[in-house]
């Protein structure tokens, strides 16, 4: 057998490559560990945080494992933000973080200092409802009501970024039923006659949902 491709040389070559690969991985792991060493570990003891919630600075001491949702509900009694699945599937816990809809159950409180957090309590009050909140009431769009704050927060973000959203954008912002679609179009300030070219799509959507 040609010496250059003998089994022994082949295995030797594989062995050298494997060792070189393992050494590279070991170096990368060591660098990674060194970079972790530069970070100050948090916990398990409570840590002091200042969170910006609904325009106010709120100080709190909390264990690093605690979610933003639990802090809002259990520590600050902002119970308008609802806990349902606690695993990023239902959207009932939606709040705005720097204006973006965010699942509060998927954020740790320790991640949030410096971020502007807005809950349902921060966008309106019983005496001063937003047009979107009024539209939900006028169109009786609450369903059981438990996820309504999530709808409102998600749609508030949409209407702030796009005052006249298309039905497609509305449907993307939340999975609407017919009453939900009606209230969303009403709250966007659109008259039924002015909805074209979306009117046809809206009526078709409504017909399917009923
Ligand atoms: S509680 Fe369902 S997504 Fe957070």
Describe this structure in words.
The structure is a single chain. β3 (94-97) and β4 (100-103) form a beta hairpin. Helices cover 43% and strands 12% of the residues. It contains 7 helices and 5 strands; from the N terminus they run αββαβββααααα. With 210 residues, it is α+β, with helices and mostly antiparallel strands. 28% of the residues are buried. The protein has a 5-stranded mixed β-sheet with strand order 2-1-5-3-4, sandwiched between helices. The chain has 3 domains: 3-28; 47-122, Ubiquitin-like (UB roll), CATH 3.10.20.30; 131-209, Orthogonal Bundle (DNA polymerase, domain 1). It is extended, with a radius of gyration of 26 Å. The site of FE2/S2 (inorganic) cluster has 12 residues, from loops. FE2/S2 (inorganic) cluster (FES) binds next to loops.
Summarize the structure.
With 210 residues, the protein is of the alpha+beta class.
Topology:
Blueprint: H1 7-37, E1 47-53, E2 56-62, H2 68-75, E3 94-97, E4 100-103, E5 116-118, H3 131-138, H4 148-161, H5 167-173, H6 178-187, H7 198-209
Parallel strand pairs: 1-5
Antiparallel strand pairs: 1-2, 3-4, 3-5
Helix pairs in contact: 3-6, 6-7
The chain binds FE2/S2 (inorganic) cluster.
Could you list some keywords that capture this structure?
binds FE2/S2 (inorganic) cluster, disordered C terminus, about 210 residues, 3 domains, about 45% helix, alpha+beta, DNA polymerase, domain 1, Ubiquitin-like (UB roll)
Given the structure, what is the number of helices?
A: 7
Secondary-structure-derived class: alpha+beta
Mean pLDDT, to the nearest integer, reads: 79
The CATH topology of the largest domain comes to DNA polymerase, domain 1
- In which order are the strands of the major sheet placed? 2-1-5-3-4
Question: What is the CATH top level name of the largest domain?
Answer: Mainly Alpha
The major β-sheet equals: 5 strands, mixed
Rg from Cα: 26 Å
Number of domains: 3
- Any idea what the shape is? extended
Task: Give the second-level CATH assignment, the architecture of the largest domain.
Answer: Orthogonal Bundle
Proportion of beta-strand residues: 5-15%
Which stretches are low in confidence, meaning pLDDT under 50 for 5 or more residues running? 176-180, 205-210
- The quaternary organization reads as single chain
Q: Give the beta-strand count.
A: 5
Give me the strand/helix succession: HEEHEEEHHHHH
Report helical residue fraction: 40-55%
Alpha-carbon distance between the two ends: 79 Å
Bound chemical compounds: FE2/S2 (inorganic) cluster
């Amino acid at each position: 057998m040609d010496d250059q491709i003998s089994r022994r040389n082949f295995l030797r070559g594989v062995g050298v490559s494997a060792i070189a690969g393992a050494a590279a991985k070991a170096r990368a792991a060591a660098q990674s560990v060194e970079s972790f060493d530069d970070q100050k570990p948090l916990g398990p003891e409570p840590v002091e945080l200042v969170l910006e919630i609904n325009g106010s600075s709120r100080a709190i001491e909390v264990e690093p494992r605690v979610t933003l949702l639990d802090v809002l509900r259990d520590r600050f009694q902002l119970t308008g933000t609802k806990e349902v699945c606690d695993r990023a599937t239902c959207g009932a816990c939606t709040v705005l973080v720097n204006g973006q809809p965010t699942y509060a159950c998927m954020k740790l409180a320790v991640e949030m200092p410096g971020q502007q957090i807005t809950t349902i309590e921060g966008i309106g009050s019983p005496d001063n409802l937003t047009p979107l909140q009024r539209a939900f009431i006028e169109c009786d769009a609450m369903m059981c009501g438990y996820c309504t704050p999530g709808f409102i927060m998600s749609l508030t973000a949409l209407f702030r970024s796009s005052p006249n959203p298309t039905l497609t954008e509305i449907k993307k912002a939340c999975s609407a039923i017919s009453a939900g679609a009606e209230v969303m179009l009403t709250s966007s300030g659109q008259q039924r006659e002015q909805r074209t070219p979306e009117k046809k799509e809206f009526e078709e959507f409504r017909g399917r949902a009923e």
